[in-house]
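Key result, reporting period 2: structure in, sequence out.
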């Protein structure tokens, strides 16, 4: 169970990142038909780079999942680096196209929705796994699941508030997504740690 707990946390982390990458690419691809020729070439190159970064991230995730927990721990820093490269490329994309608030907001909405979905899926998966643990330790797990759902609702409310404001820059929207992502990672890890403690209590 301890190795399975780490694997679940890792898989939730990677799925959330991949879902965000897909959301960004889907949002940006809807706007690629617009623009002048020179700008069009630069945007096409940036879109190609974003797709390559996403594919590289996905290939690395698959290789690590097949190799097991030891490989995951050894190369997690590499995935973090790939993720940060993707984020930097998105920022470069928005700098290239200039002040297109509508597209930035559409991208933000899609990424925020991907994050909210990841929260729900992770809490549901944790709930499913918790159901398999002995009833005597159930209270600890239920508390962790409840806290994860509360954290998810708070993060979603903060993102909704920013969505409604509507006039913030991509940098502030990206910062809000990063804060929500960090909260997700922490809540997800706390949940799986609680499940691990319940399944293997110290004597």
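The corresponding designed sequence is given below.
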């Amino acid at each position: 169970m301890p190795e399975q707990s780490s694997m679940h946390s890792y898989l939730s982390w990677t799925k959330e990142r991949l879902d965000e990458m897909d959301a960004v690419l889907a949002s940006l691809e809807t706007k690629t038909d617009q623009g002048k020729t020179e700008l069009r070439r630069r945007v096409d190159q940036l879109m190609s780079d974003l797709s390559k970064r996403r594919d590289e991230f996905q290939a690395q995730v698959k290789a690590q999942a097949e190799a097991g927990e030891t490989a995951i721990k050894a190369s997690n820093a590499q995935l973090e680096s790939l993720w940060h490269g993707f984020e930097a490329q998105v920022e470069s994309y928005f700098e290239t196209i200039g002040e297109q608030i509508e597209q930035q907001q559409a991208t933000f909405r899609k990424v925020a929705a991907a994050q909210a979905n990841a929260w729900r899926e992770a809490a549901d998966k944790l709930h499913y796994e918790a159901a398999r643990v002995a009833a005597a330790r159930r209270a600890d797990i239920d508390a962790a699941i409840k806290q994860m759902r509360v954290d998810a609702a708070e993060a979603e409310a903060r993102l909704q508030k920013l969505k409604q404001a509507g006039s913030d820059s991509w940098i502030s929207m990206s910062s809000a997504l990063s804060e929500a992502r960090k909260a997700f990672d922490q809540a997800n890890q706390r949940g799986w740690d609680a499940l691990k403690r319940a399944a293997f209590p110290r004597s």
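The mean pLDDT is 79. Helices lie at 2-29, 37-67, 69-97, 101-131, 138-165, 170-199. This case is discussed further under Risks and Mitigation.
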